[in-house]
Amino acid sequence: MRNDTSMRVLNFAALAEYHLGDYWRKMRRIVHHAMSQRAVESYTPLIEIESIETMRQLFDATIDPEGSFHRGTLGVIHTVIYGKRLETSDDLVVKDLLKYILDTFQVIEADAVVNLLPFLQCLPIGLDKKAKKIMDGYFSLTKKLFDKFKEDKKCGITQPCVAEYILEHMEEEGIDDFDVHNLFIDLFGGGLDTSAVTLSWITAILALHPIVQERAHAELDAMVGRDRLPNQADEANLPFIRAIIREVLRFRPPIGWLNFPHQSVQDDTYEGYHIPADTSIVINVHAMHMDSSRWTHPERFDPDRYLDMTESIPASANGPIAKRDNMAFGWGRRMCPGIFLAEAELFMGTALLLWSYRIEVEKGGKAPNINEWQSGIVMRPKPYKVSFIPRHDKVKELIFA
Ligand code: HEM
């Protein structure tokens, strides 16, 4: 179970915060259907397209890439939900969606502080008013997008997507417009920042590890070559790229040091401690990821730890606890349902990034500081700038083809 933060302030029922029960089960079923391994395989071409678009934005640039990664993950999740790519003419939609998603996070974070220090409720901080304004705007935008989906569907210009599934199952599942928009908002919230921030950590960390980059470049040159872009089908042949992603998820998990709190559903005993039902349990992911009995020098970034790991991230996350590669996606019934999509986005993003660029610290600029971060629901690196230097002549030709 979770606390009711977003429901109380935002009048919105985030799946991640909803208590275990029939409503959660129903919504989770829909998300599960939309994010299953099979569904994600059907999204592969679009993940490739959006990842290439991100590479275009980074071409020969010296920038903080977080904005470009956000645009890419938003593009993916928008198509997954509405069955149609965001077009250049949709720039305003992109801007508004990004703003609403990040604003809701801010309100949830601020409200968590108010929950912790209830006397703040007496101060005129205007959180409820701010939350209402955000949600009114956010709901009317998702409504507009759903209406547009229905029109596009009539014209046959959509592909199978979450909106289609929902439209067909609304009656049978007994869900109304409010539930539908909650779900869309939840998927945007769950799917945008986490994957984008992981790619941002990957970039910052790689900028500080040129030897790791060289090894990845060698793997890509040997297995993919320079005459074509890597694609999802290359994944099995790129163990070092996969190892980099896993090590970043262990080293800097985007959901941070502590996972969302869970709650015991019944009395339990753990190592002699009695845990009554309804106790909030905060799991120290950082301690698990930095356990020196499991990882040698856990404070070091070392992808070699995962070089021999052949199973997928979702398979490992569902395997025996002692053998899991990391805890970044949570565990048990509440484990992240977006894990298949995330794995595909992280693979394509990282493979393309390393195929295309050498990532260097800005000349005369400051190196990213990966030992500090911005805290919040998602733990993101402090703003940084790096240079994306094309590795060879084919980069421009192929990513702009
Ligand atoms: C690197 C990428 C991602 C990471 C690290 C991540 C991590 C997490 C974590 C730690 C949780 C809480 C699990 C728990 O309570 O044990 C969670 C929940 C959730 N995630 Fe993700 N996530 C990622 C990507 C995604 C994507 C791409 C989507 C969907 C489009 C998504 C949708 C959700 C949803 C809906 C929940 C709530 C599930 C529930 O409570 O039933 N996530 N995620």
UniProtKB/TrEMBL annotation:
Fetch the InterPro entries from UniProt.
Answer: Cyt_P450, Cyt_P450_CS, Cyt_P450_E_grp-I, Cyt_P450_sf, Cytochrome_P450_fung
For this chain, the family text in UniProt reads: Belongs to the cytochrome P450 family.
Protein name according to UniProt: Cytochrome P450
The cofactor(s) it depends on are: heme
Annotated signal peptide: none
Oxidoreductase in keyword set: yes
What terms describe the molecular function in GO for this protein?
heme binding; iron ion binding; monooxygenase activity; oxidoreductase activity, acting on paired donors, with incorporation or reduction of molecular oxygen
Residue positions binding heme: 336
Q: Which organism is it from?
A: Jimgerdemannia flammicorona
Q: Keywords in UniProt for this one?
A: Heme, Iron, Metal-binding, Monooxygenase, Oxidoreductase
Pfam families in UniProt: p450
Determine if Heme is one of this entry's keywords. yes
